[in-house]
Design a protein that fits this description.
It contains 5 helices and 6 strands, in the order αββαααββββα. By secondary structure, it is of the alpha+beta class. It has a single domain, classed as Nuclear Transport Factor 2, Chain: A (Roll), CATH 3.10.450. β3 and β4 form a beta hairpin.
Length: 139
């Protein structure tokens, strides 16, 4: 039940917005900085940082705390393992990645739509779910 609730909350937090340069949410210097931000948040069990850094449409502190509490229940030791499962490269600097983070037999699937503008990397869309089909369906 907790797993389904968490999957639903994360699925609902999927966003599709252009990040604003003044806040820098969703905007990174390069791919290395973006992956470091995501990997650090997931391996340290800090979903709040990922939601804020990737501008995942979180509207309140209470909403953030709720998601973090569910994440902590599902992944109390964080997600120390990570892999790039799929990367689709499109024209004009656009790409989409499917990442997986896991601990034991518990997995979190992450999809990120990226735009490399040569001077910065923009994470246009971010979604995460414990249900592979919900995230993989974006490809």
């Amino acid at each position: 039940m907790i797993l389904r609730s968490f999957a639903l909350v994360l699925f609902c937090l999927t966003f599709a917005s252009v990040a604003h340069a003044q806040t820098r949410a969703g905007i990174f210097k390069d791919y290395t900085e973006m992956r470091s931000a995501m990997d650090d948040a997931m391996t340290s069990a800090d979903i709040t940082t990922a939601l804020l850094r990737f501008d995942a449409g979180v509207t309140s502190a209470g909403e953030t705390l709720d998601v973090q509490a569910k994440f902590d229940q599902l992944f109390p030791k964080g997600l120390p393992n990570t892999a790039l499962v799929r990367r689709d490269v499109y024209d004009n600097g656009f790409s989409r990645e499917l990442l997986v983070y896991w601990n034991g037999t518990k997995y979190l699937w992450v999809s990120i739509l990226l735009h490399d503008r040569r001077t910065e990397l923009v994470a246009i869309e971010f979604s995460a779910n414990t249900d592979y089909d919900k995230v993989a369906g974006e490809f």
